[in-house]
Design brief:
This protein is mainly β. The chain has helices spanning 117-124, 137-143, 177-187, and strands spanning 20-22, 28-30, 43-44, 51-52, 62-66, 83-88, 94-100, 129-132, 150-153, 162-163, 173-174, 198-200, 215-217, 226-231, 236-241, 244-245, 247-248, 253-254, 256-257, 259-265, 267-269, 276-278, 282-290, 293-301, 308-310, 318-320, 324-330, 335-336. The longest helix has 11 residues, at 177-187.
Length: 337
């Protein structure tokens, strides 16, 4: 395996579209894109760049904490998220925060687990409704009176969640798109407009590599090692976790992502339980995988706003439309491809 802290990665020239446009509302996009075989213009979602023939409600955004212990697998709803954040919690395990646009039709999302402060930082980038079941003392203290996110704690909003009988507690709390939408309507809440990442159309199939492009992110325990296998035909990455395919129980399909971003940062243990402090602002190294190619890059974030990812020339990465998976790891974590 190669350490991300070491030099020597192979560089690829990034295929750039002819131009990036700025829409009337200030959002940026690559234009024009049309429905295959048709000239009908698409409406693009800010959160993931996905085009729709009919404009659908996108806000509010929901950031849902999702368990990743063995007893919680397979999870429900992960493959339908627009963005998934993966970061370590205690004892070398990882946890997910899945970000969804409004008005999906997911009958089951979860298992929902507890909050951590650094996940709040990521949820704040979307001005999201932050769904969780309790949290660490640091996270709960921060959520008191915060305006960074709209706090949706299962402890005080039991009607939005339920417990399944086919899983052991505490790995059996779920919610749904319908419940989340109903909660947002009841509170009159709608997230602010999003400052989007830059998106592009997929690379033409005859330009995609037929070999390589796979990515593996190391972890303390084998059960949490993430392997991403590039598929030339679909131009996306299929996820394996531990020793098997990572499957979404809602669809029975292997989880896939159009873009895989590895964000290196400072992580330290802060108490006897093993809770972490994760730096989410400033800048650091990154690895970006898309279109079957792997790039060295950087990430940057100010005291507020979005985390943005850049190539070696300092240009913001143009992501493929669809799900983006962001893995947050300690600087020096081994990544191989």
């Amino acid at each position: 395996m190669l350490s991300a802290a070491l030099a020597g990665y192979v560089w690829y020239e990034r295929l750039m579209p002819e131009k990036t446009i700025v829409n009337g509302d200030g959002s940026r996009d690559v234009a024009p894109a049309t429905v295959a075989g048709d000239e009908e213009e698409l409406f693009y979602r800010d959160i993931d760049g996905v085009g729709r023939v009919e404009k659908t409600k996108e806000r509010p955004y929901y950031a849902v904490m999702i368990d990743n212990l063995a007893l919680a697998r397979p999870q429900h709803g992960l493959s339908s998220a627009s963005v998934v954040y993966e970061a370590p919690v205690e004892s070398g395990i990882t946890r997910f925060m899945a970000v969804f646009p409004a008005s999906l039709a997911l009958e089951k999302i979860g298992p929902v687990r507890s909050a951590r402060p650094y996940f709040i930082d990521f949820a704040a980038e979307y001005d999201a409704i932050y769904a969780h079941v309790g949290g660490s003392p640091q996270a709960l203290e921060r959520l008191k009176g915060t305006y960074e996110v709209f706090d949706l704690n299962q402890f005080w909003n039991g009607g939005v969640f339920w417990r399944s009988r086919d899983r052991e507690a505490p790995h059996n709390v779920y919610t749904s798109s319908e419940d989340l939408d109903a909660f947002a309507v009841s509170k009159g809440y709608e997230s602010r407009e999003l400052d989007p990442w830059l998106f592009k159309d997929d690379m033409n199939e005859d330009e995609r590599p037929y070999f390589g492009g796979d990515l593996s992110v190391d972890a303390k325990y084998k059960e949490y090692v993430a392997d991403w296998s590039y598929d030339t035909k679909t131009n996306d990455y299929a996820r394996r976790q531990g020793s098997g395919d990572h499957v979404d129980a809602l669809s029975d399909d292997q989880i896939r992502a159009k873009n895989v971003l590895v964000q290196f940062t400072d992580i330290e243990v802060i108490d006897g339980v093993g809770r972490r402090k994760v730096r989410t602002s400033g800048e650091g190294e990154a690895i970006i995988a898309l279109d079957g190619q792997v790039y060295n890059g950087t990430w940057s974030k100010g005291s507020s706003g979005r985390t943005r990812f850049y190539d070696k020339n300092g240009d913001e990465i143009l992501l493929n439309r669809g799900t983006t998976w962001v893995t947050i790891v300690a600087t020096g974590t081994e990544v191989s491809y």
